[in-house]
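Input record (Table S2, row 421):
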Amino acid sequence: MTTPTKHTTLRTSVLERFLRYVTVDTQSDEDSPSAPSTARQLVLLDQLVAELKSIGIRDAERSEHGVVFATVPANTNKPNVPVIGFVAHVDTSPEASGTNVKPIVHRDYRGGDIALPDDPKAVILVAESSDQAGQVGNDIVTSSGGTLLGADDKAGVAEIMAATEWLMAHPEIPHGTVRIAFTPDEEIGRGVTHFDVERFGAKCAYTVDGEARGQIDTETFSADAMTVTFQGRNTHPGFATGRMVNSIKVAGDFIARLPRDRMSPETTAAREGFVHPYVVEASVDRTSVKLLIRDFVTAGLAGKERFLEQLAREVAADWPGVTVTFKIDESYRNMKEVLDRHPDVVENLRAAVRECGIELKEAAIRGGTDGSRLSFMGLPTPNIFAGGHNFHSRLEWVSAQDMEKAVEVIVRLAQVWETRA
Ligand SMILES: [Zn+2]
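Output record (zinc ion complex):
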């Protein structure tokens, strides 16, 4: 492990950390049943524990399932400042390689497309990112083109680490107790499975895992997974006349009748929900269609599920001998339902962003975050920008200046909670 140097500015601290963290391969693996899903994530998690200790955080610890908890002790005289937390995930997406990441710092970016050296086809196009044009003069970090960068979410990890170091080195900044958590396996939907909310002991938390500078996410989809299973009847195809009922054809009929111009990911935007078939397990005897159900209003999920049930029953009625069954599993819920009951959690975040001189952007994200699940586990958790773009791809990029702004927001947010207590 390289020993981190003492940092004099937020930007050098966050950039130096980020460039080190991305070189550790932390890809998670959804086919692995273990927790964490890959042992390589523990390498970075243990490195973070050691670094936290080296900046004076005595209680930094990693659980057997790979969750790091640590505490920045309160330094305020006020007795009633709520404990707040910051959370980021160390794993990177299985969608692109995270092995042997070679980060490149494009200092003083002059505008224009950015060609990455390891692959002639890997070019970050200005035309595809409205945010890139605004980065002229900034220091942009990319991969070398053969791997993802890992800004999702090592930018968030580096930002929380830099903010922690800053708070420890600046006792004149008053704040309450600040809890820190680093988690594995977010990208495969298991990031908070082993997150002990009670032990974390915070009133609320903030994931630092969002995108462009200034954006905060206070609303996510509500999500269910639905399985529609058609049971047919298999026989030897040579003796099938009048006897065989091929469930593959029935499921095909069902899929063909799904709406195309509405209620689909391809044809909806903003606050519209959808139903989305994404896996089919087929045999003549029995075919299951798995669908994602998404809506910003939880009650809207039930409407979509009833629509699918009715459609599947109509299809089954056209194929004598077929029966259809349904299974619905809750995935996650819109965090807004929880955050609305704790308005100060979002209000203080908005104040911190504004006080850092950043334009605030608030959007409903068409997905979920670890914060969606944490919120319903009793820890209200909106999401703060980390500065990354083009997540899960070889064209991922982040600027040092945006990372610095995220660190400022974290530090300021701790102050806002103290001031308003
Ligand atoms: Zn992420």
